[in-house]
Specification:
By secondary structure, this protein is α/β, with parallel strands linked by helices. Helix content is 40%, strand content 14%. The two termini are 37 Å apart.
């Protein structure tokens, strides 16, 4: 079974669901010695199967497939209806705000069959039988956590590693309860989780430089997970308006539920500012806003799409993904050697 110690460099590519994740990006991270990730969320089982096959044609190295744990509590129908009415009044094309599990059962059955080296979960921890079934198929199971309590629970369920996500991270908060998302900074959270559990930790949130990688390794992580640091690479599927906002680097990020109904960090734009009161209702709001976000993305309208990014996103480099991984790993190693020598 895969272990983080098997990596040539202690770097994991974040799943980046919703567009930026591509097979090419995952392969580049793998070939550079890290662990690339396939985003299984908001993708069909058929698309996941095709992505895994395509990735295995490009690399023989280990990789991860990420899925979203099903949200068992539906959003308040009245709050969702009010939000939909407000968006309709703006003339936006809307989808049906349905509650579903993203075909999770089918995806898990497929992953047992495909046996990727790592299956990672976001938005919750699967039940022990699910973890046992994946592990029996040879898959290491990772769970994203945002609080020490989540970490203790996931470790107790048998997770092989924990992705420790600080509040600095871009994209969705990966914790278990959107009504109370973890708000720990990464350094504080790493220390607390490291003291509470005995499983390997992957640090995520605001890591953009080799010094950042070195910092989380020194704080107890076995590897650093990169998200925003890879979104300007040519291999990433980041949309043109999103790339432009990342390159400009002149706006702050903020937490919002406006686009998906789940708390996420993105570069603040007009839509995010104007809909600060969006309800907690995932995936209902995600389905509701999908049509107008797709339309805005195609039109190059950066003010109407989710611009997911971590707090340190201005440091992202427009370089090939393999080069980013190798340079950050080398910088981290040099910094750690420098400190040890001092």
């Amino acid at each position: 079974m895969f272990a983080l110690a098997d990596l040539d460099v202690p770097i994991v590519g974040a799943p980046l669901a919703g567009g930026p994740a591509t097979v090419e990006l995952a392969a580049a991270v793998c070939e550079a010695g890290g662990l690339g990730s396939i985003a299984g969320a908001v993708r069909t089982p058929e698309q996941i199967e095709a992505d895994v096959a395509a990735l295995r044609q490009r690399t023989t190295r280990p990789f991860a497939v990420n899925v979203f744990e099903a949200q068992r509590r539906a959003g308040d129908p009245e709050e969702v209806a009010r939000y939909a009415a407000a968006l309709a009044a703006e003339g936006r094309p809307l989808g049906e705000p349905r509650h579903d599990d993203d075909r999770l059962g089918e995806k898990l059955a497929l992953l047992v069959e495909l046996r990727p080296p790592v299956v990672s979960f976001t938005f919750g921890c699967p039940a022990r039988p699910t973890i046992d079934r994946l592990r029996a198929a040879g898959c290491a199971v990772w769970v994203t956590v945002t609080t020490p309590a989540e970490a203790v629970y996931a470790a107790g369920m048998g997770a092989d590693a924990l992705v420790v996500q600080g509040v600095e991270a871009g994209g969705h908060r990966g914790g278990f309860d959107d009504e109370a998302p973890g708000d720990y900074g990464l350094l504080a959270l790493l220390q607390l989780v490291d003291a509470a559990v005995e499983v390997p930790l992957v640090a995520a949130g605001g890591i953009m430089t080799g010094r950042g990688v070195a910092a989380v390794l020194a704080a107890g992580a076995a590897a650093a997970q990169l998200g925003s640091a890879l979104m300007r690479t040519p291999e990433a599927g980041t949309s043109a308006p999103h790339r432009e906002a990342l390159a400009a680097g002149d706006r702050p990020t903020g937490l919002t539920r406006a686009f998906s109904g789940r708390t996420a960090r993105g570069i603040v734009n007009r839509f995010q500012r104007e809909h600060a009161d969006a309800p907690s209702a995932y995936p209902e709001i995600h389905h509701l806003t999908t049509p107008f976000r797709a339309e805005a993305r195609a039109a190059g309208d950066a003010e109407s799409i989710n611009l997911w990014a971590g707090q340190a996103y201005p440091l992202a480099r427009e370089l090939p993904a393999a080069q980013v991984v190798r340079e950050l790993a080398a910088e981290a190693q040099a910094r750690l050697r420098e400190l040890a020598g001092g």
